[in-house]
Write a structure and sequence with these properties.
Keywords: Cell membrane, Membrane, Transmembrane, Transmembrane helix. The structure is a single chain. This protein is mainly α. The chain has one domain. It has helices at 2-12, 14-26, 32-44, 50-75, 77-87, 95-116, 127-132, 137-162, 168-201. The longest helix is centred in the last third of the chain and has 34 residues, at 168-201.
Length: 204
C-alpha cells in the first residue's frame, strides 16, 4: 500500500494527494495516516510544497465526505424512522430511538463533525448522520474543513519531520482506528443487550 501511494504521488503530485484523500473517505482501507505523511516526506525532500500539500489534503478530504453525506440526506430521518418502526424490532431499534439520536446530533453535530474528522475509524462514517439529520451544507463543509485541515496538518508535519520513516505514523495511528471500531462495536452490543432485557421486563 505504501509503495502504491508513494508512486501515485510521484507521478501525479498534488492531484494524486487530492484523489487519494477523496478515495480515503469513501474506501477507508486507504488510510490518510499513510497518504499525508508520505506527502510530508515528499515535501521534506523538496519535491512538493508543504503548504500546498496540506491544502490539497484538506480539500480532498472535504470532497470525500460529500458522497456519504448525500446518501444520508437521501435516506433521511423520516425514512429511517419508518423502517425502524416496521423492521427494527429484531435490532431493538424504534423510530423513537432514531429521533433521539437525531436530536442529539442536532445539538452536538458540529462538535462531532469537527473532532470526529480527526478520529481514525469514524472519520468517514460521520458524514452519514450529518446528512440524515440534514445538517446545513455550509456548516457541514466548514466544520469538516477545519477538522480535516488540522488532521492533514498534523499528519503532514509528522511525515515531514520523520522523513524516510514516515510510515511509522500509520503504524502508530492505524491501531487507534481499530480500537475505536472495536469500542464502537462493544458499545453497540452492550446497548443491544440492555434494550433486550428492558423489553423482556416490560409487561405484556
Amino acid at each position: 500500500m505504501a509503495e502504491w501511494v508513494q508512486n501515485l504521488m510521484d507521478s501525479m503530485g498534488y492531484l494524486g494527494i487530492l484523489l487519494l484523500m477523496i478515495l480515503e473517505n469513501i474506501f477507508p482501507p486507504i488510510p490518510s495516516e499513510l497518504i499525508m505523511p508520505s506527502a510530508g516526506f515528499a515535501a521534506s525532500r523538496g519535491d512538493l510544497n508543504v503548504a500546498l500539500v496540506i491544502v490539497m489534503g484538506t480539500v480532498g478530504s472535504v470532497l470525500g465526505t460529500l458522497p456519504l453525506y448525500y446518501v444520508g440526506r437521501a435516506f433521511g430521518e423520516e425514512r429511517l424512522v419508518k423502517w425502524a418502526d416496521k423492521h427494527g424490532k429484531w435490532l431493538t431499534l424504534s423510530g423513537k430511538d432514531i429521533r433521539k439520536a437525531d436530536d442529539w446530533f442536532d445539538r452536538h453535530g458540529t462538535k462531532a463533525v469537527l473532532f470526529g474528522r480527526m478520529v481514525p475509524g469514524i472519520r468517514s462514517l460521520l458524514s452519514l448522520p450529518a446528512g440524515m439529520s440534514e445538517m446545513p451544507m455550509p456548516k457541514f463543509l466548514l466544520y469538516s474543513a477545519i477538522g480535516s485541515g488540522l488532521w492533514a496538518s498534523l499528519l503532514t508535519g509528522a511525515g515531514y519531520l520523520l522523513g524516510e520513516n514516515y510510515d511509522r505514523v500509520e503504524q502508530y495511528i492505524g491501531p487507534i482506528g481499530q480500537i475505536v471500531l472495536v469500542v464502537a462495536v462493544i458499545a453497540a452490543v452492550v446497548w443491544f443487550v440492555r434494550r433486550r432485557r428492558e423489553q423482556r421486563q416490560q409487561p405484556g
